[in-house]
Write a structure and sequence with these properties.
The complex is a heterodimer of chains A (486) and B (528). By secondary structure, chain A is an all-alpha fold. In chain A, helix 3 runs antiparallel to helix 4, helix 14 packs antiparallel against helix 19 and helix 14 packs across helix 20. By secondary structure, chain B is mainly α. In chain B, 73% of the residues lie in helices and 3% in strands. The chains are: A mainly alpha (486), B mainly alpha (528).
Chain lengths: 486, 528
């Protein structure tokens, strides 16, 4: 008996969950602090949250090149998890930087906002390090529940309410799918461990003809595809992205999405490696569908947040191209792309945060007419991010796309790469349209309400440095992404 | 210095751009003067290239610079790999030469947001120079795309009435082509990795030695060729050009005509043709046909234009048709004609756009019918315009003659004989549309009272035109200055393109054919 307990304790290995542990602890402490803070005073909570995230970042570095498995193999803090954790942490820090003045402008400075972001990040890191479907599910739930609240955070705004409710209902549905899939898989394989499933599939090459296995696998994939907003499970994205507070939209499109990709990759590439050929043909279709749906619908959007929502769908499609490649180049490319996407997309949203009026009804194409003349620095910044989203050198978007499509071409998916590139060409239209408004149209407004506050400016500056650094000297981080692959 | 000459030359304008950004935006004169100084210094930096005799003896790459840039182990590797040979030499020189002229031309033309305009010009120069000297396909692609952004803004912000349409069209056309080229670039790379051939990142010299199967070469040439054909532009992908040219500000049109279009032709000579030689016999008859259509169609459309600028724009389509026809002839005369015609087109069409700019600044219209009889009011202008018109038409003694003559002769002596016959009608058509336009604008009596008080060219405007006139006659009278440095590199390129193309070799006539023509550079090197 004593041996068993000791073995269990040895198996625990708190090192493996230390980052999310630390972050959750900070989150709870901060919740207490907000209780005792004066209503409306949130700035100190914001800075404390950033400190918490930085500390967590260092904690998670402990797992780099020093994999820590724990809890009888249901979590592991390896390079892969660390890389994704750091992406989520970066996304959270950028979000918090752009949030404080935003909350004041929207007249809803309630401090619980920041701990909720910390919990989301903790859940995201949990997902990235889960090697058991149950731990992944736990992480997903922590992440999702916090996000539901954040999406509907402005409780007196109809749009925000709609976002929260829609996200909650559809999210709950998809989680149900995921859980049901996991249950079926457990029924077939007798385990929820990713490695266990991999062993089962390897031992039973005929699993693809096993109806229960196929149903379980597909249901589980639906859950993941919903979270990464891949077509045809993308329907929630535009409404939620449009209605949620802008910093939260930025966050959702980067951090949680990266985490969802992390779990998705781990489960499919390791767990379902035995049925690679079936899955790649499925992903091929999904990737093309997601890119095309995202880009073509974005063409007709007038609302900038909504346009970026569809653009985010199409970028998930590019990342799926890396899944189709199913080689180490493609996998590292997804990681690298998520990092790139974090900087370029959050940067673009940070600019939107600054130029929005209360209620953000002015964040439309016409609303940014002449922005480049009235606010030249913001204009240049938004241009850099848009060029990066287009995938033009010398920005990070180009190196990221190059990495992804290199993976696909290496595996011989040339037509997929061609379709992806043609999709990029379509995306030029709607990104260019923003620039046309900013520079080629005469200003209708004076943008006098735009006051550039320091934290948001810092987040824009970090994003620009990130976009240009990853675009011009991408070697270091590409190598790190390579080391983080399996 | 020589070790870093190319890098210095490429990045000096970029450095200048960053300095420019801290100059106060309302100090118009300083902004323009500074940009002029930067472009002049860049020209000075590039000058040693033009006087270096190493190009006359060796066709390989010189002034090499090589640094490892991105190295992701077995995933991929890119290098900062620069070099210049006889083919890129004069295009580099043309770029650095035309830039100060362009900046000078903006003196009175650009008043809105001068700072942005000058910054875009300098960024554009970095992109163009980088693209001409990159020997790594990945690096080339970066510079190639980098040119898009400033040109887009030049047209879109400082352009004419229809500028947004023109800017977006320019951007989308060019970007679509290059995206497909990117897929082809990555494919070549992984093919080389798989075949175990010696590689140097995306270095083209190693890619030249690849033994790609015909089927792959077919598709790859299609991808590269499509991208470059848009940029040239070849019929029927030319439709963005008249729009872009017409709407762009004078400086933008000059650079677009003088340098940016050469990116496409240079791309064929440097990348598409030598990389995929086995695909050439399949494509060349088709491409040459497009050239001929471009020449005749461009000329006919130019003839019917009422807007001088549009006329010049369509004449570009025709001129570039001659360039490409010469290149596709794949013999020394043709290639030499094509290469020198690239420079000629840069000089004479650049000059024509400047001339259109001069009269537009005075009258704010470019309609031919608005003018007439200007020769009596502006004698200096009339003289310069006349010389440039002759150069554009290809009158003997001017640069245009040398280029067109050699290009056509090359085509005639290769398998493209009948194409050359039809293309030659383009020379006549060029005389028709250019001289007719000149006659309507310059000769006769002044009928429009608005033209009564036109001022002749100012000193600044004359200074702009003089260097261009110098080269019109220099190339026209003694082109060997240029051919001497191009020939070794061209021979090497032809060997690379032709070493598997027996058909074209067989159809190349006896060397004696070339001896009959004194001006032909082939006589100098034909026996080598």
């Amino acid at each position: 008996m004593e041996n068993l307990v000791q073995e269990a304790i040895q198996n625990v290995n708190l090192q493996a969950i230390m980052p999310s542990l630390v972050l959750s602890a900070f989150g709870m402490v901060l919740l207490m602090i907000t209780v005792f803070s004066k209503r409306g005073k949130t700035t100190h909570v914001a800075w404390l949250s950033i400190a918490a995230l930085v500390v967590t970042g260092f904690v998670s570095l402990a797992g780099w090149n020093n994999p820590q498995a724990g809890f009888a193999g249901s979590v592991i803090l390896d390079n892969f998890a660390t890389f994704f954790s750091l992406i989520c942490i970066a996304a959270a820090i950028l979000t918090i930087l752009m949030s404080d003045d935003y909350l004041k402008r929207e007249e809803f400075p309630v401090g619980e906002y920041y701990p909720l972001i910390l919990f989301t990040t903790a859940g995201a890191m949990w997902m990235a390090s889960g090697t058991d479907l149950m731990t992944i599910f736990l992480g997903l739930e922590v992440l999702s529940v916090s996000l539901y609240v954040l999406a509907g955070y402005f409780r007196d705004q109809t749009r925000s309410n709609e976002a929260g409710l829609k996200y909650f209902f559809l999210g709950a549905f998809s989680t149900g799918f995921l859980l049901y899939g996991v249950a079926l898989l457990y029924g077939v394989t007798g385990t929820t461990k990713v490695q266990g499933i991999a062993d089962y599939v390897l031992a039973h090459p005929d699993s693809v003809t096993n109806t229960m296995f196929v149903a379980g696998g597909l249901l589980m994939l639906v859950g993941f595809l919903f979270k990464v907003a891949a077509a045809p499970f993308h329907m929630w994205t535009p409404d939620v992205y449009q209605g949620a507070p802008t910093p939260i939209t930025a966050f959702m499109s980067a951090g949680p999405k990266a985490a969802a990709f992390a779990a998705f990759i781990r489960v499919t590439i390791i767990g379902l490696d035995g049925i690679q050929s079936e899955l790649t043909s499925l992903f091929w279709i999904l990737a093309v569908l997601t890119m095309t749906v995202g880009n073509f619908i974005a063409l007709s959007q007038k609302d900038l947040k909504r346009m970026l929502a569809y653009s985010s769908i199409s970028h998930a499609g590019y990342a799926l191209v890396g899944m189709v490649a199913w080689n180490e180049v493609g996998l590292s490319a997804i990681m690298y792309y998520m990092l790139v996407y974090t900087f370029m997309n959050m940067g673009a949203f940070a600019v939107l945060v600054l130029i929005g009026k209360k209620g953000e009804d002015n964040l439309t194409l016409d609303g940014v007419a002449g922005l480049g003349y009235k606010k030249p620095i913001l204009g240049v910044a938004l241009c850099v991010f848009l060029f990066s989203l287009m995938g033009l050198p010398p920005t990070a978007g180009f190196t990221g796309k190059f990495y992804i499509f290199a993976g696909a071409i290496k595996s011989g998916y040339i037509w997929l790469a061609v379709l992806g590139m043609l999709n990029s060409a379509v995306s030029l239209f709607y990104y260019l349209r923003v620039m046309v408004q900013m520079y080629f149209k005469d200003p209708e407004e004076d943008f006098a309400w735009v006051s550039i506050n320091v934290p948001t400016a810092i987040s824009i500056a970090i994003s620009i440095v990130g976009v240009l650094y990853l675009g011009i000297v991408p070697g270091t981080l590409m190598n790190l992404a390579k080391m983080a692959g399996f | 210095m020589a070790d870093y000459l190319l890098s210095t030359m490429i990045f000096f304008p970029l450095l200048g751009m960053f300095v420019l950004l801290v100059i106060p935006r309302d100090n118009d004169g300083l902004l323009k003067g500074f940009t002029l100084a930067v472009s002049l210094v860049t020209f000075a930096i590039s000058l040693p290239l033009a006087f270096d005799n190493v190009f006359t003896t060796s066709g390989g790459m010189h002034y090499r610079e090589f640094y490892e840039w991105i190295n992701i182990g077995k995933f991929f590797q890119m290098n900062y790999n620069l070099g210049v040979d006889g083919i890129s030499l004069w295009l580099v020189m043309l770029t650095t030469f035309i830039m100060p002229i362009t900046v000078l031309s903006t003196w009175n033309a650009v008043e809105k947001n001068t700072k942005g305009f000058m910054a875009m010009l300098l960024l554009l120069e970095t992109g163009m120079l980088g693209a001409f000297v990159s020997l790594d396909l990945f690096l080339f692609y970066i510079f190639w795309e980098l040119m898009l952004i400033p040109m887009y803004f030049l047209i879109g912000i400082w352009g004419g009435k229809n500028r947004i349409y023109a800017a977006v069209k320019f951007f989308i056309y060019t970007a679509v082509g290059s995206l497909l080229m990117l897929v082809a670039i990555i494919f070549v790379y992984y093919y080389a990795v798989q075949s175990g051939a010696p590689m140097n990142g995306f270095g083209i010299e190693e890619f030249y030695k690849l033994d790609l199967p015909y089927n792959a070469q077919f598709w790859l040439f299609l991808a590269f060729g499509f991208s470059f054909a848009i940029k040239v532009p070849m019929f029927p992908l030319h439709t963005w050009l008249p729009d872009a040219h017409t709407e762009a500000p004078t400086a933008g049109s000059v650079i677009l005509a003088a340098v940016l279009l050469k990116m496409g032709t240079y791309g064929y000579v440097r990348f598409a043709m030598p990389l995929f030689p086995e695909a050439l016999p399949t494509f060349i008859p088709f491409l040459a046909l497009l050239c001929v259509i471009g020449i005749i169609y461009g000329s006919l459309v130019a003839m019917m234009q009422e807007d001088v600028k549009k006329l010049v724009a369509y004449s570009s389509v025709a001129h570039l048709g001659f360039v490409m026809l010469g290149v596709f002839a794949m013999n020394l005369q043709g290639l030499a004609g094509g290469m020198i015609q690239m420079i000629n087109h840069g000089i004479s069409t650049g000059a024509l756009f400047l001339i259109v700019g001069f009269i537009y600044e005075r009258r704010h219209t470019r309609l031919i019918t608005e003018f007439g009889g200007l020769a009596t009011k502006m004698p200096i202008f009339a003289t310069i315009f006349m010389i440039i018109t002759f150069s554009s038409v290809g009158l003997p003694g001017t640069n245009g003659f040398v280029g067109e003559f050699l290009a056509l002769m090359g085509a005639f002596e290769s398998g493209l004989r009948w194409y050359a016959v039809f293309a030659t009608t383009g020379v006549i058509l060029a005389a028709v549309y250019m001289l007719w336009m000149y006659q309507r604008v310059m000769f006769g009596k002044v009928t429009n009272p608005a033209n009564e008080n036109l001022k002749d060219l100012s000193l600044r405007e004359i200074v702009i035109m003089l260097p261009l006139l110098l080269f019109v006659f220099w190339i026209g009278v003694y082109p060997n200055t240029f051919f001497d440095k191009m020939n070794p590199a061209m021979e090497q390129a032809l060997e690379q393109m032709g070493h598997k193309v027996a058909v074209v070799e067989m159809q190349k006539p006896a060397e004696g054919g070339a001896h009959g023509h004194g001006a032909a550079p082939a006589t100098n090197h034909g026996h080598n």
